TrEMBL record:
InterPro entries: CysQ/Inositol_MonoPase (IPR050725), Inositol_monophosphatase-like (IPR000760). This is 3'(2'),5'-bisphosphate nucleotidase CysQ. It holds the Pfam family Inositol_P. PANTHER family: 3'(2'),5'-BISPHOSPHATE NUCLEOTIDASE 1. It comes from the Bacteria.
Length: 246
């Protein structure tokens, strides 16, 4: 019996994560070379597995040359073998594996592995959200926090939590470790497809920074901005963003 899309996404994310940990723990490569070796090794597994398991679907991977033939497909797997390559190479925990499935442009199925924490979060098995904090915590890039996110954090008197990969930040909201993830520094479809599917399934707000929908499987894979947050903070974040652009 073939696996469901959710089971396949979770199995691929978990398996790739284990391989990445093995590569890192081998001690044979380090730093930037470790990141490159991990990316290439995980990508080979994921691409071959998806082409075998879902031969009729399109595929977009950060580590593969883009094939615009995917635009003819309603179903397109959008993957990031290592989200947070720098953090992976630095032997930190805030990196992730993203396996997302876009259906008609919507991030519909997703699994995000946090291998260093031995955790896989998935869209088809949502858990109740933990209670939120009264003073919002906002995850931001640990190396280049966007000025808009910093301004919104100041408006909301939010606590800043610097963190690595986009997947790690998004899953911090799902796991109840923060309330708001606002990114305005530009990303690509593979940075957010799986995390958005998982976050939406858990009842979180997901959109562009202006509140408009996120659309995937586009010819241009660049995505300028992203908002993932608990519903009770959505309107305040969007109002603060509008005040910056008015």
């Amino acid at each position: 019996m073939s696996m469901t899309d959710g089971d396949l996404a979770a199995h691929l994310a978990h398996t790739a994560g284990r391989i990445l940990l093995d590569v890192r723990q081998s001690g044979l490569v380090s730093g930037a070379s470790l990141g490159k070796a991990g990316d290439q090794t995980a990508n080979q597994l994921l691409v071959h597995a998806l082409r075998q398991q879902r031969p009729d679907d399109g595929l977009l991977s950060e580590e593969e040359k883009d094939n615009l033939e995917r635009l003819a497909h309603r179903r397109v797997w959008i993957i990031d073998p290592v989200d947070g390559t720098r953090e992976y190479g630095e032997e930190r925990a805030d990196w992730a594996v993203h396996i997302g499935l876009s259906i008609d442009g919507v991030a519909s199925i997703g699994a995000v592995a946090l291998p260093a924490l031995d955790v896989v979060l998935r869209s088809d098995r949502p858990q109740p959200l933990p209670p939120g904090a009264p003073i919002p915590r906002m995850v931001v890039s640990r190396t280049r926090p966007a000025k808009e996110a910093l301004a919104v954090a100041e408006t909301l008197a939010a606590e800043l939590l610097p963190m690595g990969s986009a997947g790690a930040k998004a899953m911090a909201i799902v796991r109840g470790e923060a309330e708001i993830y606002l990114h305005t520094g530009g990303q690509f479809e593979w940075d957010s497809c799986a995390p958005v599917a998982v976050a939406a399934a858990h009842g979180l707000h997901v959109s562009r920074a202006d509140g408009t929908p996120l659309v995937y499987n586009q010819a241009d894979t660049y995505m300028p901005d992203l908002l993932i947050c608990r519903p009770e903070w959505t309107e305040r974040v969007l109002m603060a963003m509008r005040a910056l652009t008015d």
